[in-house]
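re the bet — no i am not wrong, look at it urself. input seq straight from the record:
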Amino acid sequence: MTFVDAEPTASGRFARSLRAELRNVRTTRGTRWALGLTASLWVIVGAGVALIAVLLDATTVSVGAALLGMGSAVTIFIPILAIFIMAADWQSRDVLTTYVLEPRRHIVFFAKVLAAVIVCATLVLAAALLAVVFTAVLALVSGAAITWNADAETIAVLLWSAAVGTVSGIAYGAATQRVAIAIVFSLVQGFVIDPLLTLVPHGVGNWFRLSAIADAGSSGGAIGPALTAGVLWLVVPLAVGFVRNQRADVQ
């Protein structure tokens, strides 16, 4: 009697691809460097913000200030890490191996997306924990009191900004399939395009700023501009990236 191995189910294929993508985060040199650099810079930023807070007010150390300082670093480096996860293997022969092992490209695409979300979310939670640790250590060393002023809105803004950064990095990496191009575009978009849009008369440009999506996570944010900016900067690049992933030549 001959036994034939059963064909893996769609969920089994997806789980296998997800494990492979998470393993690539550790083994792909560019992604590994991006992960290490991001974590290192967050440690520096968290320690720096907490230290400055002590120097300005030696009697108290603010957890909320440390979290907001960490949040500013999150918005810059989280998209870069997501870009590496989505696009790094397109610049090497690794993508050829990936599609030989899993020819169903949509499975690989969504596995990359989920891997980016998992890694970025884990890093953000670790960054928040580090901010609290740095605050506690500095309070212990300096003899200052800890101010636990990290209210729900502060935490929500941090998490929402990280989510927007993660999705934008996924979108740009998928659409361009080139790490350098996606990173440059992400930085130009944040530091050039968004500020220039604020100069458009009658506030029209505010409807197309990526930061409008992040602003929607705070109490003063508007939903309308967040939706239009979300379509322009997130939905369209994600759709382009998915189509390119399905059709691009693998060499």
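see?? The chain has a mean pLDDT of 84. told u. also The chain has one domain: 10-247. so pay up
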